[in-house]
# Entry
Amino acid sequence: MDTVAEGLQWLPVSFRQGFSVTFSRGLEPAELLHRMGCAPGSLTSMTRADAEAYELGDEREGAVLRAGTAGEWAYALQLWGAHGIDAGVMAAVSAGTESVVLVSTSTIPWFAHSVNGEEVCAFDPGLPDIRYGTGADRLVPAMARAGFSVGGNPAPLGAVEAMLHLAEQEFGLGLPRYEVESGELAAGVAND
# Structure
């Protein structure tokens, strides 16, 4: 099945406790994990159950990131945490390319788009009129089409749903649901 056709709207249903996904155009999964702080020689493969067990274990030493490809994008998924929104990580994963980070955790929702190491547009999906970055207003028309309340217009969608629509519509992002939920993906541990 085409990963883009599967979209992203299933993420909050499948990952009720939260998720963070970092996408980087044109990278291989191992390179994305390396740029996110996973030691190259430490990469393995993990299922979702393996990642959850590690995250909840007593021997936990950092954030588990599981990675794969979807179309022309590599992605790294983290359960519950938000390692991908660290400024240094965003700069590294977008160096020479572009990245999109989507976060929905119990403490923070966040959207960030970076190009060539520089944050272009970032915002809390619940407060879309407060944006950061060198092109903070560049996505405003796309945000309105995706269902955000911008410029005082009422929002037809919830904040996370609108964020996922924005990523699907503006960047063509999607994930292979079965692979993410049940398959083994490349994995590494990055320092929190």
Observations:
- Residues 66 and 187 are 4 Å apart (CA to CA).
- The helical segments are 3-6, 11-14, 29-35, 48-56, 87-94, 140-146, 159-171, 177-182.
- The mean pLDDT is 90.
